[in-house]
Inverse folding.
């Protein structure tokens, strides 16, 4: 019986993070208390995290709490895509195309966006950013093409 | 007079043309971004961090302090004009500030907020100058054992102010600590949790973490709300408060300043507590409490002063003990570490120009805010009218460029995306990101002090309770926990968050 969706979700997340910490760090050297190896603190923390996750999870099944609000996938997915597009384009296509693409993709995250607004804006912003970052601040980024 | 001598060192360092410029630019940028709708002070500071990277350490600190004050002031401006608190500490300002604005008295409210903040800032600066050295001297007796216990106390008290469940907040600290340990272990050289990505050898970047968790995450959350912003239709007439306003506001500002200065020093989020406490106090001692919520000027003057005084004095634990008491201070600490400065008593000893220069620049920054903001309110109001659909793509791009221009690494951009999504998930699960960031920033030094303590004690964990100072700190931490768990205080804490 789940009574507190939020806490249960959080508990699962904590257990997952602690679990990754324990699993990925399973071969780290813990050393002794007087002379700790690199693994001691991370493994202890991961273990504690799993433990806390279990406690929070158990409590979530007993004590009434908040349910998870509706998740709006569109902004999350579209913005993530926009960020990844920027990461992928900045080295390969150049600064200006990266900015234009990112702005256009990001604009799609909102239903209120209008193409006649955000397309010119993306170009304007790219011009401003190139002027500021490449010409004024002399960042070593190619405006077009690979860098 | 020692303080005067020290402050003169500070003003000499801070008052160079260059540094004054940095201070001005910081204040302007901070207010500019902070006043944009839907961007709170924390996101503002995170977004503007890259701007300080190329500067000298003192220049960077001065600019950051300017950004901080600007962002805070921008937050109060949006609170008063559009009833949108950028952060919890300006929630109270909304109550009466927005009501004043609706009656066409936005100018007076903004001016009183600025004047009260300036006064509080002056007092706060003096407090930092007076108490900083005392605490720093105290901390000179600290060994790694005491530092570890101090960090435990600091982290736990920060949890007290986080919304949501206590257990979740503590778990979030653990997540932060764990994330802070990613990278090469300083003592053994072993790579930890780098997942075979060479860019992670130096650890997870501070910028991707805070930009993802605060800047971009905030955009995602804002896009969910289709709620229309109520923009003030009434024109702002008469910037200057009347004599009657002054008569009512100054005692409130005075009380707020006193309250805020004291609460700000305490670890944990002082400024939120300060502004709530000040509002409650003003309401309680007012002759006619019914005026509150209807545009009472004391309800703006008190909390705004308290909030700013606390913001100022919360620098004390950071600059003297290296202990960030809230997220903003964690951001400051992150910026200092990137500049190669480990905040703490050592800075005051070895680089007095840096410490006192920053203290002096706090005062200069507050003065600049007053000078630039009062005439520029009209510009800020116009900025508030920018629709969010045009704003957020620009915010996103600027965040990304900022990150890339600092590290030149696409891995950091991907990490930003990861943290933004994580932040959104945490938001849905009712977990505050603040404890995570505090844990992240303290993680490495906490581990180091922990390991060093146990080397000193030859593996005996009891060392933390055997040394009297350390014991006192840990007892304080446990006491604090007990206090939160006690039902009565818990209830009033929940009430405070509900408002």
């Amino acid at each position: 019986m789940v009574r507190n969706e939020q806490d249960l979700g959080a508990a699962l997340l904590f257990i997952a993070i602690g679990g990754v910490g324990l699993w990925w760090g399973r071969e780290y050297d813990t050393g002794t208390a007087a002379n700790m190896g690199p693994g001691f603190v991370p493994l202890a923390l991961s273990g504690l995290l799993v433990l806390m996750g279990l406690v929070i999870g158990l409590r979530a099944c007993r004590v009434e709490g908040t349910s998870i609000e509706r998740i709006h996938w569109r902004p999350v997915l579209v913005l993530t895509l926009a960020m990844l597009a920027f990461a992928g384009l900045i080295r390969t296509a150049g600064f200006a195309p990266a900015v234009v693409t990112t702005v256009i993709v990001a604009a799609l995250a909102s239903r209120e966006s209008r193409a006649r607004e955000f397309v010119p804006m993306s170009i304007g912003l790219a011009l401003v950013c190139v002027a500021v970052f490449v010409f004024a601040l002399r960042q070593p980024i190619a405006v077009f093409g690979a860098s | 007079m020692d303080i005067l001598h020290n402050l003169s060192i500070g003003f000499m360092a801070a008052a160079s043309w260059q540094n004054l410029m940095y201070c001005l630019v910081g204040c302007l940028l901070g207010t500019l971004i902070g006043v944009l709708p839907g961007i709170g002070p924390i996101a503002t500071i995170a977004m503007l961090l890259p701007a300080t990277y190329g500067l000298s350490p003192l220049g960077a600190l001065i600019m950051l302090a300017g950004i901080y004050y600007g962002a805070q002031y921008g937050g109060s401006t949006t609170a008063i004009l559009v009833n949108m608190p950028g952060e919890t500490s300006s929630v109270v300002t909304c109550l009466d500030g927005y009501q004043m604005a609706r009656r066409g008295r936005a100018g007076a409210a903004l001016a009183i907020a600025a004047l009260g903040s300036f006064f509080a800032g002056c007092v706060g600066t003096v407090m930092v100058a007076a108490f900083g050295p005392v605490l720093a001297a105290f901390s000179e007796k600290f060994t790694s054992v005491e530092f570890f216990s101090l960090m435990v106390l600091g982290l736990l008290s920060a949890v007290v102010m986080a919304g949501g469940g206590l257990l979740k907040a503590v778990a979030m600290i653990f997540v932060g600590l764990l994330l802070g340990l990613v990278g090469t272990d300083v003592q053994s050289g072993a790579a930890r949790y780098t997942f075979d990505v060479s860019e992670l050898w130096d650890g997870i970047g501070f910028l991707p973490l805070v930009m993802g968790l605060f800047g971009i995450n905030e955009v995602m959350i804002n896009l969910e709300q289709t709620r229309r912003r109520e923009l003030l239709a009434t024109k702002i007439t008469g910037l200057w408060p009347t004599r009657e306003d002054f008569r009512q506001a100054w005692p409130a500002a005075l009380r707020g300043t006193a309250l805020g200065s004291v609460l700000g020093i305490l670890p944990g989020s002082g400024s939120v507590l300060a502004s709530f406490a000040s509002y409650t106090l003003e309401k309680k001692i007012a002759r006619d409490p019914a005026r509150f919520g209807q545009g009472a000027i004391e309800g703006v003057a008190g909390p705004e002063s308290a909030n700013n005084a606390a913001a100022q004095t919360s620098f004390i634990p950071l600059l003297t003990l290296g202990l960030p008491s809230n997220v903003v201070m964690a951001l400051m600490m992150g910026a200092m570490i990137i500049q190669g400065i480990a905040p703490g008593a050592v800075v005051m000893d070895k680089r007095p120009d840096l410490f006192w220069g920053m203290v002096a620049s706090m005062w200069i920054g507050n003065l600049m805010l007053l000078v630039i903001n009062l005439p520029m309110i009209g510009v800020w109001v116009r900025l508030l009218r920018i629709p969010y659909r045009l704003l957020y793509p620009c915010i996103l791009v600027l965040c990304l460029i900022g990150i890339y221009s600092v590290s030149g690494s696409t891995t950091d951009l991907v990490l930003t995306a990861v943290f933004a999504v994580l932040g959104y998930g945490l938001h849905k699960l009712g977990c505050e990101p603040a404890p995570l960031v505090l844990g992240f920033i303290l993680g490495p030094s906490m581990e180091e002090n922990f390991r060093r303590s146990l080397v000193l004690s030859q593996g005996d964990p009891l060392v933390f309770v055997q040394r009297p100072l350390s014991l006192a700190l840990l007892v304080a931490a446990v006491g604090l926990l007990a206090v939160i768990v006690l039902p009565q205080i818990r209830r009033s804490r929940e009430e405070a968050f509900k408002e």
Observations:
- Chain B has a mean pLDDT of 82.
- The longest strand of chain B covers residues 183-184.
- Chain B touches chain A through 60 residues (CB under 8 Å).
